[in-house]
Design brief:
The chain is an all-beta fold. It has no helices and 16 strands. Strand 7 and strand 8 form a beta hairpin. The chain is globular and about 50 Å long. Pfam families: TbpB_B_D.
Length: about 200
């Protein structure tokens, strides 16, 4: 998701990432490093305006990149190594991290938080929440198709409901990652989680 503008005059466009590189992104001709030799962060790593989470995930990365000048846009992203062998049954919990941006977030560009999901592979349903300390939860409900999911995202924090999309990553859906955004483009969030 590429974000341009400020405060409540935000424009959002989705950009499909065409590779599964968790060390570098290429968006609209802009190369963004997500990993640096000799630097490991189990939690959030912040280098040159790029917030990346987290070394504890083997197959997915999420984060936000602040614009570095006029004509550049902020970016919220998720990317990873997609699952090839999806589970066909069972119910599993995923816990992880999130980063949220929105016009209604107390003058902060981004707020980091947590994510909690329950996935039922029998019924092909995902439900859960994206949270940050100072905010009402963003509640997520989605349908699973193959290694992807799509659905709705709602929070009393924001006036607009939204959509959620994401994928399962790693062997046997070990991790998940995704993006939620308001239908009016006033907020967005990226999230990741690890199977518990």
């Amino acid at each position: 998701m590429v974000i341009s503008g400020q405060d409540d005059k935000v424009q959002v466009k989705n950009v499909v990432l065409t590779d599964s590189n968790i060390k570098e992104l290429s968006i609209d001709g802009r190369r963004i490093k997500l990993a640096y030799p000799g630097i490991y962060a189990d939690g959030w790593q912040i280098v040159n305006g790029t917030n990346v989470c987290c070394g504890k995930y083997e197959n997915v990365r999420i984060g936000a990149v602040m614009s570095q000048g006029p004509g550049e846009s902020d970016i919220i992203f998720y990317n990873g190594i997609p699952t090839k062998n999806m589970p066909q049954s069972g119910s599993v919990s995923y816990k992880g991290d999130s980063i949220i941006s929105g016009a209604d977030i107390n003058d902060e560009d981004y707020v980091s938080g947590k994510s909690n999901f329950t996935v039922n592979f029998d019924s092909k349903k995902l439900s859960g929440s994206i949270t940050a300390n100072s905010m009402s939860a963003i509640n997520v409900n989605a349908d699973i198709s193959g290694n992807s999911f799509k659905g709705t995202a709602k929070s009393s924090q924001f006036t607009s409901e939204g959509k959620v999309e994401g994928k399962f990553y790693g062997n046997n859906a070990a991790e998940l990652g995704g993006l939620a955004k308001g239908n009016d483009n006033s907020w967005g969030a990226a999230f990741a989680g690890k199977k518990q």
